[in-house]
From TrEMBL:
SMART domains: HTH_ARAC
Organism: Streptomyces echinatus
SUPFAM superfamilies from the UniProt entry: Class I glutamine amidotransferase-like, Homeodomain-like
The entry's keywords: Transcription, Transcription regulation
All residue ranges annotated as the HTH araC/xylS-type domain in the record: 215-302
GO molecular function: DNA-binding transcription factor activity; sequence-specific DNA binding
Protein name according to UniProt: Transcriptional regulator GlxA family with amidase domain
Length: 302
């Protein structure tokens, strides 16, 4: 069981909180055991959008596998942010010291800075306060204009909706990109990653569409990319003809189903090879009958 605890301050932005909360809740719906909790220094908490929230005043017992998230709040400047008590800041530090992960959305990076968790680490925040964050915490490296950063179990994201990207990244890190893509699909959002970097996984890179039939086919291919899966069987499984599936799949992803499966195999093979597996062994592990096809795909890719 993993606890996801949101540290809330007065004036918290609802989407800063609701975006990652929805992502982890959806992952729990798919069988990944998350328990969400909300702590604050006052039981009834005003939000930036006017909807009051009820939070607990005490922290649950947390272990290294658990996560604390600090959503952002409404403030013109980080210096003018709401006060956060020394005990709550100490709880952030202690959790990280014990091997846990801490994360922030938008202005929530200010809380991590006050706790001393940004020193010597890469971080980001909303573009309106990036310069101020860099001035306030000169020992931190503020990365501008990216969706999120991750550095030594300190994960920070940009403004508002980027909290969803942060949550999807953490889900992908813990459970793999297929689960993150499944969550993104259920939430009807793009499975995005850092804005300045390409998608790190084909399972995420080709999910930026809303065609449910193609998503279903991709789910099957993601789960069985190392097994024979003829086009006719794939089409039958999603309830369309071979020709229709090829047309829909190509329109949504730019690839045929076969090329998508080969891309998944190639990506996994490259990972194995980079960790010392021979080309022949990697080819067998990802489902190629022999290594010649893998060598041809690698040559074409490079």
């Amino acid at each position: 069981m993993s606890h996801i605890v949101f540290l809330l301050v007065p004036g918290v932005h609802l989407l800063d909180l609701a975006g990652p909360a929805q992502a982890f809740s959806t992952a729990a719906d798919f069988g990944h055991p998350y328990t969400l909790g909300y702590v604050a220094e006052q039981a009834l908490l005003p939000t930036a959008q006017g909807l009051p929230l009820v939070a607990r005043l005490d922290w649950p017992e947390l272990g290294p596998e658990d996560l604390i998230v600090v959503p952002g709040w409404r403030a013109r400047t980080l210096a003018g942010s709401p006060a956060i008590g020394a005990a709550f800041l100490r709880s952030l530090r202690d959790h990280h010291d014990r091997g846990g992960t801490v994360a922030s959305v938008c202005a929530g990076a200010e809380a991590l800075g006050r706790a001393g968790l940004l020193d010597g680490r890469r971080c980001t925040t909303h573009h309106d306060v990036q310069d101020e964050l860099a001035r306030r915490y000169p020992r931190a490296t503020v990365v501008r204009d990216v969706l999120y950063t991750a550095d030594d179990r300190v994960v920070t994201s940009a403004g508002i909706a980027s909290g969803i990207d942060l949550a999807l990244h953490l889900i992908a890190t813990r459970h793999g990109p297929a689960v993150a893509a499944q969550v993104a699909r259920d939430m009807v959002v793009y499975a995005r990653r850092n804005g300045h970097e390409p998608q790190a996984s084909a399972m995420l890179r080709y999910r930026s569409h809303l065609d449910d039939t193609v998503h279903h086919a991709q789910d099957l291919l993601d789960a069985r990319f190392d097994q024979p899966l003829p086009l006719s069987a794939l089409a039958a499984a999603v309830g369309v003809s071979d020709r229709t599936l090829t047309r829909l799949f190509t329109r949504a992803t730019g690839l045929t189903p076969l090329r998508y499966q080969q891309t998944l195999r190639l990506e996994r093979a490259e990972h194995l090879i980079s960790h010392g597996t021979t080309v022949d062994a990697a080819a067998g592990a990802v489902g190629f009958a022999d290594a010649r096809m893998l060598r041809r795909l690698r040559a074409r890719e490079h």
